[in-house]
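request received
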Amino acid sequence: MSSLQCDITLTVNGETIRETVEARKTLVDFLRDDLGLTGSHVGCEHGFCGACTVRLNGVIVRGCLTLAVQCDGAKVETIEGLSDTGECADLQTAFETRNALQCGFCTPGMLLTAQELLASDRVPSREAIREHLSGNYCRCTGYHAIVDAVEAVAKARAGSGT
Amino acid sequence: MKITDDVPSTLTALDRPNSYIGRSVPRPNLARLTQGRGHYVTDVTLPRMAHVAYVRSPHAHARIVRIDTTAAKKMPGVIAAVTGPELAKVITPWVGVLTHLKGLKSAPQSAIAIDRACWQGEAVCAVVARTRAEAEDACALVQVDYEELPTVTDPETALDAATHVIHADLGDNLCFERSLDVGTVDAAFAGSDAVVETTFVFGRHTGVTNEPRAIVADWNPGEQRLTVYHGTQAPHMMQNLFAKHLGLEESQVRVLTKDVGGSFGIKVHTYADEMAVVALSKLLKRPVKFVADRIESFVTDIHARDHRVKAKIGVMNDGTITAFEIDDLTGIGPYSVYPRTSGIEANQIVNLTGGPYACPNYRAHTRVVFQNKNVMCQYRAVGHPIACAVTEGLVELAAAKIGMDPLDIRRKNLIADNAYPTGSASGLKFEALSHHASLDKLVKMMDHDALRAEQTALRHKGIYRGIGFASFIEVTNPSAAFYGVGGAKISAQDGCTIKLDAQGAIVCHTGVTEQGQGAEAVIAQVAASAFGVAIERVRVITGDTDNTPYGGGTWASRAAGIGGEAAWQAGKALRQNVLAVAGSILQAKPETLDIRDSQVVDAGTGKERIGLDEVARIAYFRPDTLPPGFQAELMATRHYVPRAFPFSFTNGIQASYLEVDTDSGFVKLLKHWCVEDCGTVINPQLVDEQVRGGVVQGIGAALYEQCVYDERGQMLNGNMADYLVPMASEMPDIQCGHVVSPTADSELGAKGAGEAGTAGAPACVMNAINDALRPLGAAPLTDMPFTPGKILRALGRVS
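response:
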């Protein structure tokens, strides 16, 4: 129970944001409630499901285990930002074509996590894909289709030399 | 990336030009979700919207002596603090019974507990504030004095005379009991060469939807209407219940269901804390939002599967199964859940056990008892995983006892593929199943003999792998026999309205709902095929009681089979209507015309005559040019409900290949196969993904998931760190195959596919573990989930 307010300035999806936030507010609540960026989801609020995954200074983090005040001066990217820039458009298309999502609630977090894997490991094995995604909970798909989609994009990106 | 091969349609009625039936068309509504532009109830905000948080009972059973909300009401942002008696002035209580489950009884349940809390987690006071955080802050200041009452937790002793009766008015803790005795069971056991008897235990677990339960209720006193944004599977059912218990007409209630972050049966029930939200909105005359947090989800989302089944099978030395007998016991919490009741899972176990087999002797007994734990009710594949694990566990144990191959004992006893229509000993009616064809297909898919050879070779190296099977049947396409006959206002029929827009595209309004399973895609495929347009020319509207035909929604694998058939019939009807218009424009007989790819064509030659855009233009804007007395009808509605059979059963078989680490007790899943017969396959990829997701949910039950309670009724692992769910790294690849036996009850011939995976997976994982450990002399494992500790105990490695 705290009413401590803090001023923060940060970059969210390329836009400079200056806001006053409660010190106790999580990054994902800040993104959703204050900025209307509802693409990042709140699933468990204790760091296990990965639905709130966002990128903080280039690295994926749990939006529910990060406080908004910790992001003062930081660069935050969400699924809305990645969608607008087209950074992972091929991954999104592969998820759609392969039906690698059903309810879609885990999907933004899953895409950010997969995008990070493919940035570091160009053609990961199915086991490596499963391992890297193992912090993102999906109740619908059973994961097989997600692994298929990520694997296909990895091969396509490697093949096209991008 | 492999897209599942298209399955050619087997029915001539579906063999329309450019048909989408049997094609793996991507779902048209996915880009929204991959771009983070979905609209879940958790995303909904409205002007003046307030948030509710609940004070929940820390005790499993306690009298509420006094609630003091004085301090809470003084907190910043707080709008109201409301207790059970105060809310009861706005909303009436309910009782979860169905008349066709004879003898089933339950006690009245209130939106917020009155006088007494009956499980840990039951809401005893609501605090409404400007933000959820402020509401939670104030909850901490609500002073509740409790007087603890005796706690009933163990179903085994719930009916003992010495045990406290939870609801004194009911007389005892028995909710429901059913017995069945068919054939000559005692004589069959007496004449058997071998009898296997064991007890199966199923861990209480829950759905863990990624998006928690969420609801926003908006009572508008100006228009005397309630609009509810609700993550539900059954909008019309909820419309009825909100109206009934708030004292409104159904026309005063609109339920809107947009994107839903996973359901699996969790979101098809009446939850007290959600009923409280609609009542609070009415009381406070403003929108109120509730989103369960994860801990609330664990202690209030319905649980399921907490069953103990003593089971027995008789078998002859040639493998003939002589009899099945089960004695089932389950504890369902303090209330039977409204309106579907908590007797259905037990009832299904009685109905389904032994179902795949031609065995005439069957005895079953089930008792459903009250206890002071969270409520249990229908969760994906209701009763099937239990009935299947009991049946298939017994069959493989019997095979092992007489030294028979587990596939051979199935070939000997599975109902013959040419025996249909037929039924089960329990009275189920089967229209057309394909157990043997499915088994043969599975054996080929998994390269069974090579796998057995590999297993044998590895055993010599001290590597213990197991192969397990599970044949199953699944209830789909339920008629009114499921709920309607028992007095619940849950629609068995569904409707679809299709209209031609002014540019020649079509819009479908359907009563079934999208929970991520792909209902919108299936409706679009069916409507496009029946009417004659490309799927891009179809828009589907679901989840709005103001704007869709009355329907049941999505549960019991009914959306494609029932909603799909309604869409098929509506598409055909609209085609006839549009051809009547075209015929009058073209001076041609409508029966000589057809619609193909948005063009009205000569049916015989395929020659294009006039575009749908032109037909629509004339019909809407120049009707004066049509013949006198001719009225174009450019909207058609059709309804469908299965009538020939109470349920459309599907069947299939699964196999699991796994390795048990005999030092650590860990199970590594290597591969999983499922052959499924859901009749006409409308979209092979969507069917396969339903199967795969279902299989993994079943694997969770077999290996990980359990709501652990202590003897005082406290849930000990209500968080995702301690309650384990399947994650990507532990799951195997899952190969799917199909056999197609369409139902003749509909033109489409489609049955459901949503629960097959969950029905069979626990059984075949169990059988595979026991197959792996059998050479080591381990006692058969029959107590799910099969944790490393239980496996090491079975191996005698730990005591």
